[in-house]
Design brief:
Elements: H1 7-30, H2 35-63, H3 70-93, H4 98-139
Helix pairs in contact: 1-2, 1-4, 2-3, 2-4
C-alpha cells in the first residue's frame, strides 16, 4: 500500500527548490558580470533542473516497469552530468571570489535536489490519489 508523502517533506522540498532557484537568480541579478555570462549560468540552471527531473522520472519509470527507451535514459543522465560539468567549468574560469563560486555551486545543487524531491513527491502523491478511488469503491 502506498502512503502519501508527509506535508513536512513536501514543504521542505518546495522550500529547497525555491531557495536554491531564487538564491541563484538573486546572485546573478546582483553579480557584476556581463549579460552573456548571466545568461550562461541561468541556462545551465534551467537545463540542470529539467535534466535532473528527467533522470528521476526515468529511474522511477524503470523501477515501476514503465518502458523508457535506452536513448532517453542515457540522454537524461548525460544532460544532468553535462550541466554539472558546465557549471564547474564556468565557475572555474570565472573572475569571481571563491565565496561567490561556492554560493553558485551550492545554490545549484540545492535547486537540483529540490527539483528531484518535488517531482518525487508529486508522483508519489499522485499514485496514492489514483489508488484511493478503488478503495472508496470497495467500501461502498
Amino acid at each position: 500500500m502506498k502512503q502519501k508523502t508527509s506535508s513536512a517533506f513536501v514543504a521542505a522540498s518546495w522550500i529547497a527548490l525555491f531557495i536554491g532557484v531564487i538564491g541563484f537568480n538573486v546572485g546573478l541579478w546582483n553579480a557584476e558580470m556581463q549579460l552573456n555570462e548571466k545568461g550562461y549560468y541561468f541556462t545551465v540552471l534551467m537545463y540542470g533542473l529539467f535534466a535532473a527531473v528527467s533522470v528521476q522520472k526515468c529511474v522511477r519509470d524503470r523501477l515501476e516497469g514503465i518502458m523508457v527507451t535506452d536513448i532517453y535514459y542515457g540522454l537524461s543522465w548525460v544532460s544532468t552530468l553535462l550541466t554539472i560539468i558546465l557549471l564547474i567549468v564556468g565557475l572555474w574560469n570565472a573572475t569571481l571570489l571563491p565565496s561567490e563560486k561556492g554560493f553558485y555551486a551550492f545554490a545549484f545543487l540545492l535547486s537540483i535536489f529540490g527539483a528531484i524531491a518535488v517531482q518525487k513527491n508529486t508522483r508519489d502523491n499522485q499514485a496514492v490519489k489514483d489508488a484511493t478511488p478503488e478503495k472508496d469503491a470497495e467500501a461502498a
